[in-house]
Each structure stands twice: as structure tokens, then as C-alpha cells.
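Hi R.,

Here's the chain you asked about this morning:
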Amino acid sequence: MNDTLIGWQNQGYDDNDWRPAVTKGTPPALPWKTLVERPFPQWTNSGLKSYCDESYLKTDGKTIATGFLPYDARITAYLKVKAPAGKLIGIQTDQYHGWLDFNEGPANRAEYLTKEGLNEFETYAWMSGNNVIYTIPDGVELIDVKYRELGYPSAFTGQFQCDDPFYNRLWMKARRTLYLNMFDNYMDCPEREQALWWGDVVNQSGECFYTLDTVSHALIRKSIITLVKWQRADSTLFSPPSRIWNAELPQQILASIGWYGFWNYFMNTNDSATIREAYPAVRTYLGLWKLGTNGLVVHRKGGWDWGDWGTNVDIAILDNCWYYLALKAAIPMAILSGYPQDTAAYVTHMRSLETHFAPTFWQADERCYRSTKLTTPDDRANAMAVVSGLATPDQYPGILHVLNTQTFASPYLEKYVLEACCLMNADTLALKRMKTRYTDMVNSRYSTLWEVWDGLKGGTINHGWNAPNTILSQYIAGLSPLQPGWTTFQVKPRLGGLTNVTQHVTTPHGPITVTHDYYGRTFIMHLSIPPNTQAHVVLPTTQLNHPSTTLRLNDTLIKPQDPFILKPGTYCIQVTTVDTN
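And here is the predicted structure, written out as C-alpha cells:
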């Protein structure tokens, strides 16, 4: 950019020669049309900051100046130089070429064309990466470089800590990944589409409740309303909703409107207004889905017939699981929204799936779920059978074997594999699998989690659908809402061999903090419960009713209860078990 209006931004600039401003009309007149009020505060702005470190490499008639950021960040880049007119300076991050292997194209960059003398410039559009690279041609004197970090206006109030540094580092990388993929919208990645892929939002929104303050809820609401307002006349929903993309991903849309999407938002926020606004689109979309003569879901290809990255995706099983979860959420949404008449059809379809799912897909000799189109059981499909509730406890041993031996899931559906392990009380396996699958990411130099398991070879190194922090917070630490808005919540730790776990969550009623400690055969829980809520506490022991087990609440010996129901306050629960061997 060659800036010829010197000092135009300053208060004393003489603009007498400027033409008068032209009235273009009052909204909703063109060019404004209907304006939408911003639903959350403006971005956080760090101000200009010095880089953590800088390096300089002189080569081929130019100097490569690199400013190192403290982590992968969303930034605008600043420079101050003294130069002759007409020198072209390039500005980009290390992620500009970072996903060319994905056969897409370069990310954002900026160029600045100098004027004679002293030049100061800050990029107008944000970019993201781990460091910023300035290409300075010979003849230009570089005086200073800085950066400005921008972010969604939410605070890191959630916290997870345990006695294994691996999971602490993983949780922090997941937090950084989540935050960097939040801005004016949720996005899959900040380097590539920057788009509202709703499959990603399902995982991201679940993370927000354990990671950020309640300001983060507004971005979820905006995402919900954006999705349903772009519903087409044929009742299909598609994501990312825009004029340059119109492909429906049926399984992602079922996930979005279902148990882990819209309904999970309501359970964590108690925002019934958003559900009532969204439900009419949900009911018409669900009307597109049909059951076949076999009592199971008729597959819909949509605009992109996609279930997950990778191979061996058991689409038929995933169709039924996602549809079942969508129906499970639609029943309370219909009642809440004033459409109780819709629930009968939803219940009928759920009963049909419950009746026909296992006879069709359960391979008794192999002790796993598998459709006949595949020869190897899919870990995704078996996990989704568990989290949907279509699998039965007698099938868990076989399913656990699949989850212990098969690793087809991408980071997108890995979240549900880990959740299934926890739901089957195999929290040790969940932590083991988490460590195996995420070791390369945790040990890498990047501060974010990746789109696929092999990093830049197949995708981005910052992708919003990673959700290990949800598993660590919701299942390992054991905090989850039982009633909308956390008015009643559960504390059910599944420690998987860890001996110390702390979790802090910000809810609409205030903060919840819990710490779990094992000292030999003594388990101690410290719990802080905010006003206007109650906790259902389930202790991690099978010996609660053993005659030699002692149980104390705030140093008072009490009789065993499962679960405890505790009112607002601060508690210390201590249980000591005996060796029954």
C-alpha cells in the first residue's frame, strides 16, 4: 500500500479539500440492509507488544526478520522502517505455506510499499501462526517490529490439573486450539477456511463450558442462530453457511442439532430462548430423515457424503447413532418450544432403532458392531453405539476390545471414542488411548492440536475439533450438568489411575472447584458449590457399603450415601476403604 494522505488519521489534519460526505440512506436501505447487533463485546486487544525473540538472516538482496510469538496466536503485525520510496516488504507467518500439502493454497499475508523516509505500518487483516516473518529488501533500515494479539473477549477461567504432566500439557494445548478458533465465529482453523463448520462447533462448544467464562456462550448462540437462519426452502441445513458453500454434511448436521450440539448448549446455559428460536428448523430438518423397511435410517448423502477423515468409516452405523442422538435431543426441545405433538414420532423412530440396531449390526461371533460392507470393525462406530445408548452393557467387553485395538478415528471422532471408554467405566483405557494418540502433538513444538494425526502432512496444525479437555474435565475430573444451567450437577470422578486431579468450571451460577486426591486407600474430595445449585456426588469406590469403610463429611463420620446430595457450600469428603483380598 502506498499511503499518499500523510497524517489523515490525526485529529489536526486539514480535510477542507475533501468532498462532503454523501448520505446513503438509513438501514435497512441499501447498501446497509438489515443490521444485526453484535452479540458479544469487541475483541480483546493486547496493544503492540515486542516479540519473545527475533532473528535476522541476510540472503539474496534481502533480510528475513523473524519475530517469535509466545504461542500460536491471532495477530496483526507492525513494522517501523526508514526507506526510499517503492520498496516492497512482505509480511506473513510460519503458517502461510503450512497447509500446501493439503492441496489447497496459501494462507493470509500482507505487502507494504514504502514511501520516502520514515514508515510505520500495521497489517489491516489478522493472521495466525507461531512466528511472523518480514522480508525486508536491501536499502531499507529496519527500526522496529511488533505484534498485536487479538482474541475473542472471553477469559480462561476453566482449569484442569493432575499429577501427570502429559495431560496438563494436552489440556493447555487444547485450550489454545479452542481459543484461536474463536473470533467473530467459530472456525475449523485460522489458517485455512476460517469457516463455521458445525461438526467442529459441536466439539468446540462442549470445550467452552470447561475452559472459558460465560461470555463464550454468546458465540455458541450466534453459531446456532446462523445455522438455522440459513436453512433452505427444501428444509436442508448446511455448514459452513455462506453463499460460496452449500453442501450439507448430513451426519455433521445431525450432530449439530442433537444431543452434543444444541441440547448440550441448553444444558450448560439454560438458554431456552435460543432453543425455541432454533427448534422450528430442527423439526423440519428431521422430517427429511426416513426409516427403511428394516426399521433403520435410510442413508442421506447430502452435498458431501462424509463421516470422518480416514479409512474404514462405518457410515451405516454412524447414520443411526447420530440420528438417534438427534431424536433424543428433539424430544425435550419440542416440549420446551411448544411442539409436544412432535414427540410421538420421535419416540416411535427411537424405538424402531432400539429394536433393529443390534440385530442388524452386532456381530455376535466377533463381539463388535460392524456393517456388512466392512470387514474390520470401526472404532468410531463402536464408540458411537455406546455414547448414543444403542449398545447394551453386555456388549461392552467386546466393544472395549475394539477400542483397545483399532485406531481409525480422526481427532474429530476420537472425542467420542474416549467418551465411550469413560461411559463403560474404562477410564484407564481412555487415558491410555489418549496418551498414545496425542503423544506426537503433546511433544511437538506447536502450541496447538492438529487436524489429523500426522500434522502438516495431511492438514493443519491448529484445528478446532480436538476435544481432549472435555474428556479430562467432564469425565476424569467428573463435572457435568444434570439440570439446565448447572442448577444440579454431578461430581463423578473417573481418575483412571491418577492420584491428584483438580478442575475449576465457571457456570451461570458461579464457579465450581473440585479436587480429588488419593493417599493410599484414602480418597479425599474438596468441593466448592456455588449458590442456587446442588451437587450429586458419586465417589470412585465400589466398597462404599463395606462394613470397614469409613466416610466423613467435613470431619463428621456419616453413613454411606450414593450419591451424596450437597447444597451450596464448601466440603471435604473423605472415604477410607480396606483391602478385601
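One quick note: The mean pLDDT is 95.

Cheers,
M.
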